[in-house]
Backbone:
């Protein structure tokens, strides 16, 4: 189906607007955070999450009040329970629940044609426990295997791949170094337990790779093959240093995060900045005729200023219990104009939930 304006549409093509969005909670500070309560119960904070209907569309799951979930006692054996957010695709409904474990093992979230799940936390239900302690709760929201942070077409830095590549290079260089030592040992002899002459040391000293032969360190400048290896080590060190510097500041990829009345923000060392907000407004209407639809608007001023125009998405512009949706009509480095759309005219006075995210550069 080709998606056009001035035409009524079903939910599926509208949901396809967020095709690139990944499942997870909206942010990791408080959305659906699980904490201890009293006795065998836990608290789940209000929040917004995104679950997948299939590869082409998904749903927002919004909970605006704190929820209390009960955990059954474990008896004589400990087990691990899961606080789960479940989307039933057949019933088109979402549910916050406790998945009771059969043991201490954690099974993978169910993600098939009928169900989509994210895990918010796991609970260590101790044998004969009478209460759930804070130490029994492990937050899983930042673990992409179980939940993760919702992203709109933005992939994270491939840190695991980069580490694997660096380790592969280092292992290769170690192999070359061993070959060189073996070659030198054949030429100069090998150290034996009785203390005869031979190669018995390798070090990187004063910007040069050196091999110890008897009591003397032979520098790379005096050995052709070793000099080549030394250059590779130098280049690798420079590359790794540059990589770390580009992705981190003082070893951390995040250099600043915070919030104000306009929303939340995170600044990364490579210059990327992500900002988001969710508000509830009663002075916003969706009542301006636009073909067969009606539109309303809300200007979001960013918590922090971008250096240039960012990429902005509006994931929700929901009037009351209506079926309205959101999009973006314009953006600049300090603000974005969010647009709500509905098939019916919606007057001001009812809660309108608005959520948006902006991604760009802070330097």
Residues:
């Amino acid at each position: 189906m080709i998606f056009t304006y001035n035409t009524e549409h079903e939910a599926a093509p509208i949901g396809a607007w967020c095709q690139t969005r990944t499942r997870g909670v909206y942010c990791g500070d408080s959305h659906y955070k699980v904490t201890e309560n009293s006795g065998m119960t836990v608290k789940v904070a209000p929040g917004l999450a995104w679950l997948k209907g299939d590869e082409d569309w998904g749903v927002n799951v919004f909970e605006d009040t704190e929820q209390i979930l009960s955990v059954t006692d474990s008896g004589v054996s400990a087990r691990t329970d899961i606080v789960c957010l479940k989307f039933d695709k057949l019933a088109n409904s979402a549910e916050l629940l406790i998945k009771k474990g059969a043991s201490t093992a954690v099974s993978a979230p169910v993600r098939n044609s009928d169900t989509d799940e994210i895990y918010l936390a796991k609970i260590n239900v101790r044998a004969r426990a009478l209460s759930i302690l804070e130490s029994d709760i492990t937050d899983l929201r930042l673990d992409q295997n179980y939940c993760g942070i919702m992203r709109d077409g933005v992939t994270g830095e491939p840190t695991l791949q980069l580490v694997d590549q660096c380790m592969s290079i280092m292992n290769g260089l170690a192999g070359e170094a061993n070959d060189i030592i073996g070659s030198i040992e054949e030429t100069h002899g090998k150290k034996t337990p009785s203390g005869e002459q031979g190669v018995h040391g390798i070090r990187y000293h004063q910007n040069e790779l050196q091999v110890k032969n008897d009591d003397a360190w032979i520098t790379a400048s005096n050995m052709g093959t070793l000099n080549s290896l030394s250059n590779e080590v130098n280049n690798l060190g420079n590359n790794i240093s540059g990589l770390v510097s580009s992705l981190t500041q003082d070893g951390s990829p995040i250099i600043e995060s915070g919030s104000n009345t306009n929303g939340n923000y995170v600044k990364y060392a490579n210059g990327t900045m992500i900002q988001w907000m969710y508000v509830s407004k009663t002075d916003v209407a969706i009542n301006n005729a636009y073909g067969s639809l009606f539109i309303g608007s809300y200007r979001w001023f960013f918590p922090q200023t971008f250096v240039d125009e960012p990429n902005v998405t509006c994931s929700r512009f929901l009037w009351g219990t209506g079926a309205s949706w959101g999009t973006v009509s314009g953006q600049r480095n300090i603000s974005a104009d969010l647009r709500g759309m509905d098939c019916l005219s919606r007057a001001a006075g009812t809660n309108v939930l608005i959520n948006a995210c902006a991604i760009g550069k802070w330097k």
Summary: Confidence is low (pLDDT under 50) at residues 1-5, 190-199.
